[in-house]
Amino acid sequence: MVSSLLRISCLISSTNLPVNKEEDLKNLYKKMDATSKTRFHASRRLKLHATCSTYSVVIISLGLILIALMQAYTLGKNINSNLVGLMQVFSSIAVLVYSLLIDKNNYSNLSEKMYSCASELGELKQKLKPHLAREVELEKYEEFRKDYYQILKLYETHSSNDFRGDYFRAKLEMPEFYSIVGIDWWTMKFKVFFADLIHLISYPIVLFCLGWMIWWLWFG
User: Fold this and answer.
1) Among 30, 50, 202, 210, which has the highest number of CB atoms less than 10 A from its own CB?
2) Is the residue at 2 inside a domain?
3) Which residue range(s) make up the domain with 65?
């Protein structure tokens, strides 16, 4: 009988046991901080994608119009070259590809969603932060945890390739959780740069090709 009562009292008291701040609550705060910063960076990157895609379509379209005017008025040393048609086809395909990418990926809308998610996580993080300095009951911890995962369910997540560069950038901004110094810091910086390069390299390449074609047509 006594042993049974002891078991019951232990079960009741266990529901009010404080959460280990270092092991649980701090880890939850770390997740919130990393996810929030990662999605803020994703929002900025996607907004840059939207801007670059739009301007690329506009510039390539203007290039096509310029080439057509050069043909109409016979301007340029190489305007009568057989390669002009090839250049116009290439430029038209580039416009089509970028237009499809803008429509399919919807960078602007996805950027807004990432920003909204990051903002909500930031607010939740600020609510949790004061509790790091004191013991928190298990129920309170569960409440923060459920709120965190509920916010994540409301918004789209990263694709695996896009996530990596944003996450590395977020880690560099969290020295209190990630000790990245010396060669590791430079390695992480290179990874961030390489990820951005992969995402944005197509825009300067296409615009460089267009500029080179117009230069060649005009000056030979």
Assistant:
1) 210
2) no
3) 20-219
Distance CA 123, CA 126 (A): 5
- Give domain status of residue 204, yes or no: yes
CA distance 73 to 22: 75
Please, how many CA atoms are within 13 Å of residue 134, restricted to the half-sphere of its CB?
6
d(CA 122, CA 161): 24
The residue written with tokens 């916010």 in the block is 151
The contacts of residue 139 (CB under 8 Å, 6+ apart) are 15
- The span from the CA of 35 to the CA of 60, in Å, is 37
Do residues 82 and 58 make contact, with C-beta atoms less than 8 angstroms apart? no
Amino acid type, 22 = E
Query: Does some domain include residue 132?
Result: yes
Q: Assess if residue 7 is contained within a domain.
A: no
Residue 127 vs residue 134, higher pLDDT: 127
Can you tell me which residue has the tokens 């298990």? 138
Average pLDDT value for residue range 155-173: 78
**Structural domains counted in the chain:** 1
CB neighbours of 22 closer than 8 A, spacing ≥ 6? none
- Using an 8 Å Cβ cutoff, are 35 and 107 in contact? no
